[in-house]
Design goal:
Elements: E1 2-9, E2 18-26, H1 42-55, E3 58-64, H2 66-72, H3 74-87, E4 95-99, E5 115-118, H4 121-124, H5 126-149, H6 155-158, H7 164-173, H8 181-184
Parallel strand pairs: 1-4, 4-5
Antiparallel strand pairs: 1-2, 2-3
């Protein structure tokens, strides 16, 4: 039986995309050490990501960028990223398990698969844990790349999350092109919105 796990990374940051991963595995495949990505160090996540990609039947990444987050809202953008990850798969799957308590297809999209949402699925279901790791590793890579373009904000370390340094930088220097305006409003004064 082929099981697809789906999870996301990046719902809470002030900048950058929300990234979803879909991972298809045989139900007997076990990646030792794979669990909720938030409980793992960056180096362990990176190593597990390579093992997951090597041992899974298929995987796909879906992204909704900061503009889509601002125009839709974070929940709908997350659903869009998950949908993009799901339709990017080439291997048919028997079951689709999604982290969370809600999943709705964007717009008029349709899929012919049964899916089930599981609260805290990233800590309960192996395939979702693997998706959690791939999503987090991919998003971290994206934010490190953005750090080259926008070094002032410290994206290589904070990954866009609202750290004290990040908030202080927004308050003094304004936002950059990848900030989520809908998330940054309370930190921006009228004089420092650079967009």
């Amino acid at each position: 039986m082929l099981i697809c796990g789906i999870d996301e990374a990046g719902r809470g940051p002030l900048a950058g995309p929300v990234v979803a991963a879909a991972v298809v595995m045989e139900d007997c495949t076990e990646i030792t050490g794979a669990r909720d990505s938030k409980t793992l160090s960056e180096s362990v996540r990176n190593e597990l990501s390579l093992r997951i990609k090597d041992r899974c039947k298929d995987y796909s990444i879906g992204i909704a960028d900061h503009k889509e987050i601002d125009s839709l809202n974070i929940l709908q953008a997350t659903m869009l990223a998950m949908f993009r990850a799901l339709i990017g798969l080439e291997v048919l799957r028997d079951s689709v398990l999604i982290d969370g308590n809600y999943f709705r297809l964007p717009g008029r999209a349709e899929i012919s698969y049964n899916f089930k949402t599981i609260v805290k699925g990233d800590s309960k279901i192996h395939e979702i844990s693997c998706a959690s790791i791939l999503a987090k590793v991919e998003r971290d890579k994206i934010m490190k790349d953005y750090n080259e373009q926008y070094p002032l904000y410290g994206f290589s370390t904070n990954k866009g999350y609202p750290t004290r340094y990040h908030i202080s930088t927004i308050r003094t220097s304004g936002i950059c092109d990848i900030h989520r305006i809908s998330f940054c409003g309370k930190f921006i004064s009228e004089g420092n919105c650079n967009r």
